[in-house]
Amino acid sequence: MEDSSNTLKLTQDGGYKWRLVLAYDGTHYAGWQYQVSPPTIQCIVEKALTRVTKLERKDLCLVGASRTDRGVHAWGQVAHFITPFNYDKLEEIHAALNGLLPSDIRVREISPASPEFHARFSAISKIYHYKIYNDTIMDPFERHFAYHSVYKLNSTVMREAAKYFIGKHDFSAFANVPNNDRVRDPVKHIFRFDVIEMGALLRLEVEGSGFLYRQVRNMVALLLQIGKEAVPPDIVPKILATRDRKELAKYTLAAPPQGLCLVSINYNESHLLLPPGRPANSFGRHHTVSKCKLPFY
């Protein structure tokens, strides 16, 4: 982006941090985490940022709050990046980013962030939804965003089973081995797990302090087996107690990715306060049509 009197202000001190709220259709991407081929969401967003800011990838330090997997969608992914300069207003960079990004990735919001804010480590909870289309024939408009179950699911026993996940547990039995060497604390706190019926759609909503690799899809997979009445609801605490992923594998594989969506990430309000001397948040802008002045006859 070109330097202008009301766009950039160079500073001599450390960088300025910015927060992005992103939505994307993950169908054609290999997840969030950076890699060039096949493309990932982070890779595409960084390319757009480098063009708009004229900075190198290593200088942007883009970090996402959640490493969504291949084929998983997001409505409320959060990321932050750093620039050595301040912006006077954000509407122009916001419009420029969405102009460069493909139509299946959108920046919903861009805002200044405090130096203490970290997209991943400042999060206090994350909310995921998993959609199941429960009818004999799949709605073609839902095929990329919901799992199709031709088995009639018993939502009552699914709700009963979902309650067993609520609370603080060791979720080792519901975590796949990650593709990297990171060792994560297997103890997570699930605040709620709701099963909501919307006609043929079942929406499973889960909020937790954090999630292990494929934990949500594994929990959903077991609930599907319970909904089919293949296993009883009280199988959940029994599998949790084993802390062994092989135990879950006796009953089910992970649910497919297309039904899963990262809906929102919650932070302490103090981390979202507007830092002094920074521009207002940008939520995009509407275009307007100038009124045509017709001659008076």
Keywords:
single chain; 297 residues; alpha+beta; Alpha-Beta Plaits; 2 domains; ten-stranded mixed sheet; two-stranded antiparallel sheet; 7 helices; 12 strands; 21% helix; globular; disordered N terminus; tRNA pseudouridine synthase; RNA binding; tRNA pseudouridine(38-40) synthase activity; PsdUridine_synth_cat_dom_sf
What can you see in these coordinates?
The protein is an alpha+beta fold. A hairpin with a 2-residue loop joins strand 10 (187-198) and strand 11 (201-208). Helix 1 (41-53) packs across helix 3 and helix 4 crosses helix 5 (215-227). 21% of the residues lie in helices and 28% in strands. The protein folds into 2 domains: 8-121, Alpha-Beta Plaits; 124-262, Alpha-Beta Plaits. The strands form 2 sheets. Strands 2, 3, 4, 6, 7, 8, 9, 10, 11 and 12 form a 10-stranded mixed β-sheet that branches. The protein is globular.
User: What's the helix-strand series?
Assistant: EEHHEEEHEEEHEEEHHHE
CATH architecture name of the largest domain:
2-Layer Sandwich
Helix content: 10-25%
CATH superfamily of the largest domain: Pseudouridine synthase I, catalytic domain, C-terminal subdomain
Number of domains: 2
Q: What general outline do the C-alpha atoms trace? A: globular
* Computed structural class: alpha+beta
Q: Nearest-angstrom radius of gyration?
A: 22 Å
Distance between the termini: 47 Å
Q: Would you report the number of β strands?
A: 12
Which CATH C-level class of the largest domain is it? Alpha Beta
